[in-house]
Amino acid sequence: MSKEVLIDIQNLHKEFETDGVVTKVLFGIDFDIHKGQFVAIMGPSGSGKSTLMHILSFLDRPTSGKFLFKGDDVTDFDDEKLALLRNKEVGFVFQQFNLLPRTSVFDNVKLPLTYTKKLKESEKAKLVDDAIESVGLEHRRDNLSNQLSGGEKQRVAIARALVNNPEVVFADEPTGNLDSKSGAQVMEILEDLSEKGKTIILVTHEQYTAEYAERIIKLRDGKLVSDSHDHKRRKKGLEK
Q1: Residue 170, SS3?
Q2: Do 33 and 68 meet the contact criterion of CB atoms below 8 Å apart?
Q3: What is the reported pLDDT for 240?
Q4: What is the per-residue pLDDT for 95?
Q5: Which of 33, 43, 200, 238 is the most exposed place for a label (fewest CB within 10 A)?
Q6: Cα–Cα distance for residue pair 228/190, rounded to 1 Å
Q7: Does pTM surpass 0.85?
């Protein structure tokens, strides 16, 4: 793991206002994440973990505090700058897969490259095939997404998240719709990506899933209550 600080959160607060009613969600969050770390953010429903992920992935911005990404203060970036960062630096894996039905694995993975004008079609195809190979689905390349199992769909979603070679992959409850065997396969892929230097930020309420990470940040009621840097990771091949 690199010692380079990728994400630096300082005294972060977030609140929402609806019809004049202010709801405070995050309170004075402080932590940093180094390049190449595999971090799990845990907490019960309502703890603020999803709101925090939205801020870290440039989908939302804090009410106050600082958010440094690669040393740049992105706190006050406008929507266009945040969108550029999101498209270039971030890949997403969601609980619901979010694949296009009746569309091939290849075309689903290619989606993030659709508006990339600087690449030739042959270069895009090579990136897509490499991403599909990285999750072990070469044999499913031309299958339609609705012909796949749940575990295969999530692996396609991971390939799609990787095709742009993002700096960070966010995985939001990635095993929530999977059986235990498929969930373990998905987590092992994320673990392998981490070992190859990719920064992984996992959001989960499942302790079992979080144990694949090298570090677990726990939130409760919008506050950071623990940050286990020396967490003993679950290792492949051990008793699950």
Answers
A1: strand
A2: no
A3: 39
A4: 86
A5: 238
A6: 19
A7: yes
Across residues 10-24, what is the average pLDDT? 93
Q: Give the residue from 167, 165, 168 showing the smallest Cα distance to 124.
A: 165
CA distance 208 to 240: 9
Please say whether the beta carbons of 216 and 210 come within 8 A: yes
The one-letter amino acid code at 134 reads: S
Domain positions in the chain: 5-228
> Which tokens go with 56?
């870290």
> What is the spatial distance between Cα 3 and Cα 17, in angstroms, rounded to a whole number?
38
> Where do we find the tokens 């309502």?
46
**CATH fold of 5-228:** Rossmann fold (3.40.50)
Side by side, the strands of the sheet bearing 90-94 are 90-94, 168-172, 199-204, 38-42, 215-220, 223-228
pLDDT tens track for 69-95: 999 999 989 999 998 888 889 999 988
Q: How far is the CA of 180 from the CAs of 133, 147, 186, in angstroms?
A: 23, 20, 10
What span, in angstroms and rounded, lies between the C-alpha atoms of 205 and 50? 11
Contact (Cβ atoms closer than 8 angstroms) between residue 142 and residue 108: no
H helical segments located in the chain: 49-56, 79-89, 105-110, 121-134, 150-162, 180-195, 207-210
**pLDDT beyond 60 at 234:** no
The two tokens of residue 156 are: 């396609």
What whole-number distance in Å separates Cα of residue 164 and Cα of residue 148?
23
Other beta carbons within 10 Å of 144: 16
Q: Which residue shows structure tokens 């396969």?
A: 185
What does the pLDDT average to over 122-150? 93
